Structures are given as C-alpha cells and as structure tokens.
Amino acid sequence: MTAGQVYKQRPSRTEKWKDGCLVAFRNSRFELIETDHLEFNDLALVADELGLDAEYLTRNNVAAVCVLRDRRDGHLLLVASAHLFWELQCVDIKLLQAATILRRVNDVVTRHRKVRSVVVCGDFNSTPNCATFFLLTTGKLDLGSGDCAELPPAVLNYIHNVLIDCTTVPCLQSAYRVGDNDETGVISTFTDKYSGLIDFILYRHLNNFDDHLVQKSTGVSTLSLPTVKQCEEAVIVAFPSRECPSDYLPLAAILNLARMEVNVRFPTAPVMKVRDDFDDAHDLVHVKYRHLHLDLGAVL
Questions:
Q1: How sure is the predictor about 236, in pLDDT bands with cuts at 50, 70 and 90?
Q2: Quick check: 291 and 22 in contact, CB under 8 A?
Q3: Cα separation of 271 and 281, whole Å?
Q4: Which among 53, 115, 38, 136 has a CA at the least distance from the CA of 90?
Q5: Facing residues of 5 across strands?
Q6: d(CA 268, CA 34)
Q7: Mean pLDDT computed over every residue of the chain
Q8: For residue 167, what is the domain's CATH number?
Q9: Is the peptide bond before 170 cis (omega within 30 degrees of 0)?
Q10: DSSP letters along 23-50, please?
C-alpha cells in the first residue's frame, strides 16, 4: 500500500519547532486534488481591526487542509488537521483560529461543489464546554458564556462577520460523545496541571448532491479513551508515563459518511494498543508528529 500525504510545518525563525500537521491517505483510493493550508499568523494582518497587538496574535499555529477525490465515484472529501494555540486562557486567540478554520473550509467547499463530507480533527486545546468548541459545533458565538463575556467587541464583531460568510459549512459535529470533563467524562490528556478532552475528530456530511444521498453522518465507532478516575485507579500520576510516552492520547473513529466508511485516526502519540476492531494498527506505531491518518475501507 502506498500512501500520499499533505504536510504543513509550523513556521519558526529558528530550528526550535519541527512539528506540524499532516493528512495521510491511500493513493489507491484517493487522488489529491488541492492543498490549501492555514497559517494562523495571518491573523496579525488584521490586528488593527481586532484591536489586538500583532505579536500577540502570532503563535505559529497551522492547519493542513486538502481536498481528496474518491477514485471510485469522483466525489470529493475535504480533510483538515489543525493545531490551535495551547494556552487555555487565551480564548480570543483560539476563537479567532477556529473561525479561520470554518471560513477556509467554507471557501474550499464553495469552490468544489462535489465535496460530500468534511472532516476536521486535531489538537484544539479547548474543552467541550468552552466557547471554541461551541463555535465549531454550532457555528455560533456563545455570548452568554464566561469565555466571551470579557472579549473585546471588535473581536466578537470580526468572528460574527466570518460566521455570516460561512453559509455552506456553518458547524461540525464530534465523533466522540462529549461531557463535562468530570470523573465520568473521557480525557485525551492527563497531567499534573490539567486533565480533560481537548482533542477532537469533527465532521459534517453536506447536502449539496442528490436527495437520496442526503443523510446525517454518524460516528460508527470510536477508540476508547479513559476517564480521570480510571487513570487514577491505574496509579498513573501524569502523562507522559511508561504506559503513554506522550502527554496526549490518540483518537480514532470510524465514520459512516454517505456510502463510504471512513476510518479516521488522530494520533498524538505512539500507539501502544488499540481495540481489535481497528485494523492495520501497525500504521500508527512510532508517529512523531500530530497528524490525521485517513484510511478508507469497503463501502457499507
């Protein structure tokens, strides 16, 4: 099996950062049609409009975006792998970066009317109960939340105008069930400072084609994630650990998008063990960078 890939490395003035975002796919099943990456440093170009300092907006985060053509029927799939700013308290930056993703996805889908489905995954450094996740999954600003209460009006107006333009892909849905990140909620990171679910596989099935194919995409299966309680019962102090050599756990989901089954994997660490119902687990071993692995199976 030969694999194609689309990679976007983080910008850096030095050799400090080597990581980036990657989308990998089977060449036998998909043809790469377009790459359309994002550098969130471009937000510095509108710093005056936002009333923020350009240096404050320059965080060297990126997203790899591509359009793939299904060789079997010619329909298109948009896939993006993103990494948003890590600081949980910088809600304004993450909201602006999330809005930028929605706008780019909307622009690409508008250009390619045969796009049937959209998959956006990555390290969003945002919990399910925060404004960033709310924006991505509803296409709206949660103005009643504490996250948005203290944001400058210029930032809120900018994001509002972006959402007005996003007429094709206003919102996405999570492959994983999300909770309140308490002891019963699953987590993707577990450290001495913070534990929670901050990585996601988001998707949406579009209705811009024949009526008999219009259906809501649903998550068929997801790779299990632990809860805080389970980590504590396993006497895991924090990640990285001997059991998990990274501060993040890998995510994987099988999505049923129209007539095709899609196996989406977002590893953020070498995979030590996966469930039996995820095939080709060896493809995920020794993953160095955060990326998305797209692997299509047979049509259901």
A1: confident
A2: yes
A3: 8
A4: 53
A5: 24
A6: 25
A7: 79
A8: 3.60.10.10
A9: no
A10: EEEETTTEEEEEE--EEGGGGGGGHHHH
Return the SS3 of 110.
helix
Tokens of 63: 């997203």
Q: Which residue carries 């994001």 as its tokens?
A: 159
**Short-list 261, 270, 193, CA closest to 29:** 261
Looking from the CA of 229 toward its CB, the CA atoms found within 13 Å total: 5
Residue 220, burial from CB neighbour count under 10 angstroms (0-12, 13-18, 19+): middle
pLDDT grade for 73, boundaries at 50, 70 and 90 = confident
Tell me which range, 162-176, 206-220, 252-266, is most confidently predicted by mean pLDDT: 162-176
Number of domains present in the structure of the chain: 1
- Print the domain residue range for 124: 3-296
Distances from the Cα of 254 to the Cαs of 48, 138, 180, 207, 251, in angstroms? 43, 22, 23, 20, 11
Element (H, E) at 66: strand 62-70
Residue 42 confidence (pLDDT) above 50:
yes
In tens, the pLDDT along 155-174 reads 999 999 999 988 877 689 89
DSSP string, 68-83: EEETTT--EEEEEEEE
| Per-residue exposure over 87-120, b if at least 16 CB sit within 10 Å of its own CB, e if not | ebebbbbbbbbbbbbbbbbbbbbeebebbbbbbb
